[in-house]
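Attaching the record inline, Q. Sequence:
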Amino acid sequence: MNRSKQASVSIKTILILLVGLALESVHVAEGQQAGKIFRIGFLDRSTSGSAVYVDAFRQELSKLGWSEGKNIIIEYRFAEGNTDRLPELAAELVRLKVDLIVTTGRAPALAAKRATTTIPIVMMPFPDPVGEGVVANLARPGGNVTGFSGLSYELNTKRLEILKDAVPKLARVGVLQQGGGLAPADLPLKELRAVAVALKLKLEEITTEADAKGLESAFRTAKQKQVGAIMTSGGRLFFAERKRIVELAGKHRLPAIYPQKDFVDEGGLMSYGADTADLYRGAALYVDKILKGTKPADLPVQQATKFEFVINLKAAKQIGLTLSPEFLARANQVIK
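Structure, as predicted:
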């Protein structure tokens, strides 16, 4: 064998060895990653009554290859309606050294952001994350926070318009807001008041605690103020009490529009809002990306893209409300 052929063989041998070493290092890294169990914090202002959405989050994680007990552990922290507990719960998750925190709604996201500037946070949905300084901008959030914006401000005004179309002679609308200091963020009335003036509607603003006593009192107040219909904010506590709210609206024969389809599933009249389950599935996708190495700062804050308008004809009949065929045709789903 001449020298040129020997050199060629030597180079090939070296290349093969280098490729082998590279592949071995990749397999070692993959093995280390596969053996790691990530710990995810889940921070919610309400109770586990929103389990239907938590299930959507967990199912999407499962599809992406994440299994609780095998490669992830989820530390659930529910404030049980007590907003004052959120800072304590957020700090507890930080002490546990979780790899990531998922938050639901405005207050938990703010609590988590104040608790850590290093642990990645995936928020869903936050009404105005840029306006409240949670992220620098939607496209490049910067820092350790990303997630989803629910467009709740814009959707509130749309719901008021739908109520007016459903009840053409409507003059007064009762607006239920959650107590606890979060009402202005849950349902900012400045924009809603302007739309109400344009629609020739009077808003009756009713702040209430989301419990049996508070809600009973709120609906009595609504009747005393002679409101012709009700709308609620999109807060987590109202969601947890959706069955009670729907029952009270029916008892007082008040047309009502809700922010989520789940209220209609409980017998409510109609809902218009973002597909909440889709937002939770999106959060799972972001969790997957971050656990695989993507920085939150590089993941844009996304806005809701799927919306649902659902009408329950049985509920309409129970309160003596007739809805026009044109109005019904606008719905994504009509429950008979």
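The domain at 36-150+276-303 is CATH 3.40.50.2300 (Rossmann fold). Residues 3-35 form the longest helix (33 residues).

More tomorrow.
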